[in-house]
Amino acid sequence: MPDRFPSLLEALARHSTGGPAPMHMPGHKRNAALAPYLSALGAAWDITEIHGFDDLHEAEGILKDSMDRAARLWGAQRSFYLVNGSTCGILAGIRAAAGRGGKVILSRGCHKSVYHALELCGAVPVWLAPPVDESFGVLASITPDQVRAALAAHPDAKLLVLTSPTYEGVISDLAAICAAAHAAGVPVLVDEAHGAHLGLAPGWPAGAVAAGADVVVQSLHKTLPSLTQTGILHQQGDLISAQALARQLGIFETSSPSYLLMASMDGCVDLLERRGGELFARWQAALAAFDRAIAGLARLRVLCHGTDTPEQHPGIFAHDPGKLVISTRGTALTGPGLMARLREEFSIELEMASGDWAIAMTGLGDTEENLLRLARALMAIDKSLAACPMPPAAEPLPLPPTALPVAQALELPCEEVPLAACEGRVSAEYVWAYPPGIPLIVPGERVDRVFLDCCARLNRQGVRLHSTGGTMPRALRVLHPSSNPTKGD
Prior knowledge:
This protein has helices at 8-18, 36-40, 62-74, 85-98, 112-121, 144-153, 174-183, 208-211, 220-223, 242-252, 259-293, 335-346, 368-383, 406-410, 449-460, and strands spanning 21-23, 78-82, 103-107, 124-128, 159-163, 170-171, 188-191, 215-219, 231-235, 301-302, 318-319, 323-327, 348-350, 352-354, 357-361, 414-418, 431-434, 438-441, 464-467, 475-479. It is of the alpha/beta class.
């Protein structure tokens, strides 16, 4: 550890002049030529709700006009700017639709904000277990048949929540899923935080708004030229009203919204209106050049890029071409090892890495040279790798039986118990496996032999197990016997 860290201002100033190539969010990629409005944002523009500048929570002037333009751009009935990121949109959407104690059908692979919404609302979850892609180990698509079965088994469900695309770019068949849910009278909320760019130009997969989702939550900053923390919530149809959403946003979103963040969203919408077709075509051309440049990879693979084709991943309905998932399976190199080599040897910074894969995020601010630089680095690393025995195919993850709602389990007394002695006890915390970043157990679920065997297998394979209390894989916090429900409850 250094004796003294530089101030954040010093560190950012240094990074801005000589930092590595950003293969990570935000989507503007520090490309000042693309989005000059971002460079203009500063103290002189930092105001509050003064005359002529509207009020985000009671918008009727300049902000309403900007959000109406966004709604037209994405094809929504109503759009709301989010200055607290996608998280506040997800919290507001779930609370507006599910109320307190409602039943929610949702993918097990949802973002942690969805789990937090379950806690805050006391909602009862009905889990959809996403299959696992055997060759890459990432979570595959939720299927329409899974959704139809859940809807039939739970006709009292208040809401369906899905993540599409996932962090790894995996897209589900949202059109068929929304049709099934609407036939049952159930609204659909799609966490499209990683897909604000989808459906805005030909050649890209359709977005959730076009698929018919009632509420769609997007992070503008992840792939588009807008400041970090900016998001947007789209609403359509009459199953979840705009008025209910506005009320909940008034609860979960700050009452002092930053005009710098809102200005970056307005600038992003304006840029897409004026130059979207041109910029998306440039992005697509850069990705095509990347694909050609990595065609010679022998050991490394990039999901649905280069010589890796969609046909090799039957469980994945569609994949976002802007997300580059790089697999090191069958080599001695780990995902974090690849990330470190790219940083140290080639001055390229990836988005994340875990297990035997890493993610490079591309965005509208990327240039062809950025992507070719990454391609050349991958080709060079690939030549240095020897083949190793391929690890076993990824297996489905457990789905332990539910004993109590998440919110109730979190409020009861608990104790820390050695993991091996936890069978039959009810978990009081989350346990996550990285990869693929899905909870193996959540508060209120009963520890069973399938869960324990899965933890042991993943631990042997070197997969990182993380619990809320940080004691895994040694121990787990479970409900105290005085509050532990009996089996069958």
